[in-house]
Amino acid sequence: MLACDFFTVDTVLLRRLYVFFFIELDTRKVLVAGVTAHPSGAWVVQQARNLAFELVERNQRVRFLIRDRDAKFTTGFDEVFCSEGIRIIRTPVRAPRANAFAERVVGTIRRECLDRMLIFNGRHLENVLSEFVDDYNGHRPHRSLGQLSPLSVTVPSAAPEVRSTSQFHRTDRLGGLIHEYRLVA
Hints:
By secondary structure, this protein is of the alpha/beta class. It has one domain (2-152): Ribonuclease H-like superfamily/Ribonuclease H (Nucleotidyltransferase, domain 5). It is 30% helix and 24% strand. The chain has helices at residues 41-57, 75-82, 100-112, 122-138; strands at residues 2-10, 16-24, 30-36, 64-67, 87-90, 168-173, 178-183. The strands form 2 sheets. Strands 3-2-1-4-5 form a 5-stranded mixed beta sheet, sandwiched between helices. A two-stranded antiparallel ribbon has the order 6-7.
């Protein structure tokens, strides 16, 4: 299952940017489809084509896509996914909890990243989101996944050993906003 949604980011120069993203519900993997100042139906359809092509390349079977009733989701958007055998589930009107996974990701991105830094333009936002999503997908533990990250879900989890703090290495991401800890070899 996939879910998709938009969220907005206001820049230092008082411009509003729209971020379009998808989340895989089983692994919690986030895919940022694109950032634009003027989302149109044609732009959203192109992002859908890009994702559909990526899903086919990865040979990943998706059965459902949850989306809201935003006017940017045109019939062309739905047709891209229907042609791949994906059923579209539209959320009820004024029911943000119906797309709770996507809303939770938006809240996480805002709380852990965007509320703590100033964004200058679209390129800056793309770079920040790229690094945050790399950390989110590759390192950040999720309770629903047994404290694994989305990219390590297929790896069987073993009981962690208790080690001293001298055996860990800290890596700062996003200028020290996020800290990653790894075992020293």
